[in-house]
Amino acid sequence: MDAIPPLPPEIWDRTPPVAQEMILAQAAALAQQRAWRWTAVTSWVTVFVVRRSRGGKVAQELLGERFWGYLGTARWSAYPWDPTWRRQLCCAHLRRDSAAMIERGGQAQVLGKAWRGQALQMVQGWHRVRDGRLAQTTFARYLWPIRREVERWLEAGQTCGVPKPERRCRKIRKVRQALWTFVRHTGGEPTNNAAARAIRPGVLWRIGSFGTQRADGSRFVEALMTVGATRNQQHRDVLDSLTAACEAALRGEGAPSLLPTPAHLTQGMRPAP
């Protein structure tokens, strides 16, 4: 089965994506090995692929060699090819890290409480920007002391005396520039929650159906989830799109493009929040 071709380059000209690997294992009959479902989400298009790897090559296949946008991700190591100044690490993970540190007690608890407080201020400020109650430039100035505090605690955490938090702090500190990309890039987000929400229906589908048994089944899942999520994002009828694709196949033609047409854009089609 040939690989699904990468997304058209013009997609990335419209909006930066949020990408997240599927970190839960999926049963697939591809040599009886585990598989992962990946998704890339933009303001207008959501794309899924199922692969036996969660490595960087799959991320590059999904985004395409010409990708040159801003990328929101988890901290998984599949994205080292993307420079940190164009990558946004999911700040929601900082809050989860802080909760785990607080539960450990001792010096890790002190560190965790400090992280939690700074992360809360960061997200609250960004919500005001998103809602139009705070200018991006004002938010950038507001965030400077928070950024200094976060990076100060990251440095202190490297010698906090608890091995696991120390390793986590060292790992984050190496890519700390990627914590603040959403501040520099207007329209960016501090989390990759959009990708997490997009991939959730696929997780539930896998649990209920026990995954796919052949490569053809995985390609079917990719195509159906991509069409469904994208058309819902664009507030267009999913059944109409599937019908048009089937009719095109019967005529020996290619499937209709999932990209919004100028007519749809001028009609006020809204991107997904």
Could you explain the architecture of this structure?
The protein is an alpha+beta fold. It folds into 2 domains: 9-85 and 192-266; 91-184, no CATH class. The chain is built from 11 helices and 6 strands. It has helices at 9-14, 56-63, 92-104, 106-130, 136-157, 163-174, 181-184, 193-209, 215-233, 238-250, 262-266; strands spanning 18-20, 26-27, 34-41, 46-51, 71-73, 87-89. It is globular, with a radius of gyration of 20 Å. The relative contact order is 0.15.
Distance between the termini: 35 Å
- H and E string: HEEEEHEEHHHHHHHHH
Supply the number of helical segments.
11
The shape, in one word, is globular
Mean pLDDT: 77
Largest sheet: 4 strands, antiparallel
- Secondary structure: helix percent: 40-55%
Keywords:
273 residues, alpha+beta, single chain
Summarize the structure.
53% of the residues lie in helices and 9% in strands. The protein is of the alpha+beta class and 273 residues long. The protein folds into two domains: 9-85 and 192-266; 91-184, no CATH class.
Blueprint of the fold:
Layout lengths: L8 H6 L3 E3 L5 E2 L6 E8 L4 E6 L4 H8 L7 E3 L13 E3 L2 H13 L1 H25 L5 H22 L5 H12 L6 H4 L8 H17 L5 H19 L4 H13 L11 H5 L7
Parallel strand pairs: 5-6
Antiparallel strand pairs: 1-3, 2-3, 3-4
